[in-house]
Amino acid sequence: MTGAARRIGACIAENLHQRGFNVFLHYNGSGAEVARLVEKFNASRPDSAHALQADLGDIQQIGRLAAQIKTITGNLDLLVNNASQFFPTHVGSTTESQWDALMDSNLRGPYFLTQALVKELSVAGGSIVNLLDVHANRPMRDHAVYCMAKAGLQMMTLALAKDLGPAIRVNGVAPGAILWPEQELDSNHQQSILKKVVMGRSGDPEDIASAVVYLGLDAPYITGQVLAVDGGRSLNI
Fold first, then answer.
1. Which H or E element spans position 55?
2. Which residue among 41, 105, 128, 169 is buried most deeply as judged by most CB within 10 Å?
C-alpha cells in the first residue's frame, strides 16, 4: 500500500488489516504517522505490519522497496497504488520540478513499482487497485499536469489489465469529493463543489476503502474497470 501513512491511505490500510491481511505500509516523508499505524496494527496482531520508506520518483528506491517486500514474502495478494501529490500548476509558469513531482507520484512510481512486483502478484493470483480521480476524464481548472498524470494512470490501469490478465486483475477507484485538499479551500469553493454532487455532501474515506477492498479482494471476475466513488459528482462535471 503506497501512501499509507495518512488520510485515505491510512483508512484503506486499516480496512485491509482488519480483513486479516499482513500489510506493507509505504511512506515517503510521513515517518511518524506510519510508525503509529504499524504500532497499532502489530499490537493487535504481532508482526502483521511493516513500514517501508521510498521516494517513488527514484527508480533505485523503488527497486529497494520491492526488494524489501520480497525478503519478507514470495507472494503478494494486493498492490494498492495510492501515493499522490496534488497541487495546482498554471500554464505559463509550470516548472520542471512541479511536472516531475506530479508525474512521479501519480504515474511513473505506480508503473515501475507494479513492474517490480509482477512475479509476486502472479504467484498469488493477486490484484492491483490504482487510486485515480474523477478529473482523469474531465479537467480541473489550473491542475493540467495533475489531471494529465491521473489520466495516464487510468490508461495504465486499462492497459495492464489486458497485459497482466488472467493472472493479475487490475482496477481503479476514482474518488470525488472525499477529503478536502490539505491546501485548504475556502468555504465558498467547497459549497460550489458540493452543489454539483448528486448526494449533496462529501464522502468519507471509508467509502473509498470499501471500494478498494471490493475490487481488490471480492471481485474475482472484474478487471480493467474504474469505479467512480463520487456521490454522483461525475454526472455534473
1. none
2. 128
Annotated catalytic residue 221? no
Q: Could you list the pLDDT tens digit for every one of the 237 residues in the chain?
A: 999 998 999 999 999 999 999 999 999 988 899 999 999 999 999 999 999 999 999 999 999 999 999 999 989 999 999 999 999 999 999 999 999 999 999 999 999 999 999 999 999 999 999 999 999 998 999 999 999 999 999 999 999 999 999 999 999 999 977 665 655 555 666 666 666 667 667 678 999 999 999 999 999 999 999 999 987 777 776
SS3 229: strand
Neighbouring residues of 88: CB distance < 8 A, sequence distance ≥ 6: 142, 143, 146
**Which is the catalytic residue, given 111, 146, 214, 221?**
146
pTM of the predicted protein model: 0.93
C-alpha cell at 157: 490501469
Identify whether the C-beta of residue 48 lies closer than 8 Å to the C-beta of residue 22. Answer: yes
